[in-house]
User: Which sequence fits this backbone?
């Protein structure tokens, strides 16, 4: 396929976007872009700089000054040339990223960068506003969802694999609070984009979700 293709995958925290998007990108030979990691990188830089997470002006400056890149052929995330793949997954970064992402200036900066990334290569890009804001004309738009309790359980397993122990009730509470923040923010709220195919991953395995998305892509873009 010579034409540049954008596969947009949106959904709430813990719906499986990162895992699935990475697998689909590998299957198609597309570039995988984790936009959530970009906001995490901004949050990490803000925390390291001692910036108040309520200071919209300074956060926009941080976002516009941050050099964020994804290493080709790997899952490594680079911030100003530093590998921050593990650092942005620290427990304190998730809520910080959610707070940072509500500011329009930060989102504008990230959307500009995301569009640049998708301008010259076929990509599988996942986040919360890819099909609705970043690439509303994407050839394929997917909205992944799952029951909050199931999403919390997935997040706990992910963190336990990294040696972190968290209270399940606390994780589910944080996910529900993040859902509320993401869906009610004034700028680029989490919504199901027009034309998006909704996939409820609650009862599905990773392999089943991956195949369902590949089937949609087959129908939409491959003659």
Assistant:
């Amino acid at each position: 396929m010579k034409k540049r293709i954008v596969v947009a995958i949106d959904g709430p925290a813990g719906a499986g976007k990162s895992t699935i998007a990475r697998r689909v990108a590998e299957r198609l030979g597309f570039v995988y872009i984790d936009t959530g990691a970009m906001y995490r990188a901004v949050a990490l830089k803000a925390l390291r700089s001692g910036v108040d997470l309520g200071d919209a002006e300074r956060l926009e400056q941080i976002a516009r000054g941050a050099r964020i890149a994804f290493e080709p052929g790997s899952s490594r995330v680079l911030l100003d040339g530093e590998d921050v793949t593990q650092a942005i997954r620290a427990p304190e970064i998730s809520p910080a990223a959610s707070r940072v992402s509500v500011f329009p200036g930060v989102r504008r900066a990230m959307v500009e960068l995301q569009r640049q990334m998708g301008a010259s290569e076929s990509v599988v890009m996942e986040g919360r506003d890819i099909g609705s804001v970043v690439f509303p004309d994407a050839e394929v738009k997917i909205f992944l969802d799952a029951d909050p309790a199931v999403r919390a359980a997935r997040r706990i397993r992910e963190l336990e694999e990294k040696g972190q122990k968290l209270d399940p009730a606390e994780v589910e509470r944080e996910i529900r609070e993040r859902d509320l923040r993401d869906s009610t923010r004034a700028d680029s709220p989490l919504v199901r984009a027009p034309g998006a195919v909704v996939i409820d991953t609650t009862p599905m395995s990773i392999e089943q979700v991956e195949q369902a998305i590949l089937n949609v892509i087959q129908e939409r873009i491959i003659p």
